[in-house]
Amino acid sequence: MRKKLIAANWKMYKNPEQTREFFAAFLPLVAGHTRDEIVVCPPFVDLYAAVEAAKGSSIAIGGQDVYWKEEGAFTGEISSSMLLAAGATHVIIGHSERRQYFAETDDTVNLKLKAALEAGLTPIVCVGEVLEEREANLTEDVLRRQCLRAFHAISGKKAAKLVIAYEPVWAIGTGKTATPQMAADAHELIRSEAAKAFGDEFAAQLRILYGGSVKPENAKALMAEEQIDGALVGGASLDAKSFTAIVQY
Ligand code: PEP
Q: The domain containing residue 57 runs over which residues?
């Protein structure tokens, strides 16, 4: 049985005060919820406030990105050890907005993944096709390439904490959602790529989340798919009540 993981990606929303307000509202709503793992990934400047606010609860905190070097003259970047020192345990890697707007490539995803795993963080690696690729029947090729390159030169033993998020780019922030069947098909393909890279046993335990306009209204149907091991939630995770409704699908 794979325990589902529901992760909030706050993108570039909320400051430390708003972060504290969110947790003050959210924690009582999910107190005692043990069925799923819950992770909140706020902007870097909110990490401290989030970690403090979530102390004593089962909510984990994650970063939205990480650089692969340990330290150095890399203005604006944050390392895995910095995330860990701030109290984060998870990190999103290769989100489509980073691929689209900040020159993230399959190769930098691989470097970041290696660094995060080495440091002991739980990486949530995002893969997914854009609309033109889906329309051109290239979804499988794209997912295969993204997985192959992300997993390059990583051993199954090192990758133990890996989590994948399948996020069709056309479904992110658009209100369009992949049907549970579309997501399940993509997840099956990703799992088979993980099996090739890390072995069948690893693949059977790998959690593959779905992301792309997950809302309280569609969470139940998506989470009912056997292949879907949780959700990466953007817009609907900003409000404590709506994120709670998703967590309690
Ligand atoms: C995301 O940011 O990863 C995401 C899936 O966003 P949204 O839920 O808003 O589509």
A: 5-247
Give 117-163 pLDDT, tens digit per residue. Answer: 999 999 999 999 999 999 999 999 999 999 999 999 999 999 999 99
Which residue's CA is minimally distant from atom 2 of ligand 1? Answer: 234
- What's the number of domains the chain is made of? 1
Owner of token pair 């900003």: 238
Our answer on whether the CB atom of 211 is closer than 6 Å to any ligand 1 atom is yes
pLDDT (0 to 100) of residue 1: 83
CATH number of residue 69's parent domain:
3.20.20.70
Residue 120 beta carbon below 6 angstroms from any ligand 1 atom = no
Contact in structure between 146 and 107 (CB atoms under 8 Å): no
- Say if CB 177 and CB 223 are below 8 A apart: no
The one-character DSSP state at 4 is: P
